[in-house]
Amino acid sequence: MPQKDPCQKQACEIQKCLQANNYMESKCQSVIQELRKCCAQYPKGRSLVCSGFEKEEEENLTVKSGSK
């Protein structure tokens, strides 16, 4: 049986918040930040729901290092 994703609860909270606020990300920043905190606690690849943040961070690093 696969292990439960450690950040699944936070991901679900984001979905609930977005649905309740007509998908306006600006109204859900605190919930999104909670997911980021959760993702930071686990090694890369441990949480499937964090893979989007991990990819976003890699792209940001590539852009920053490429602009020097």
TrEMBL record:
Q: What's a GO cellular component annotated to this UniProt protein?
A: mitochondrial intermembrane space
Primary location recorded for the protein, binned into one broad class: mitochondrion
Q: Name one Pfam family in it.
A: CMC4
The UniProt keywords, alphabetically, are: Disulfide bond, Mitochondrion
| Cell compartment(s), UniProt | Mitochondrion
Cysteine-cysteine disulfides: 7-38, 17-28, 39-50
Tree of life domain: Eukaryota
Q: Which family does it belong to?
A: Belongs to the CMC4 family.
In its UniProt entry, what is this protein called? Cx9C motif-containing protein 4
Source organism per UniProt: Mesocricetus auratus (Golden hamster)
The coding gene here is: Cmc4
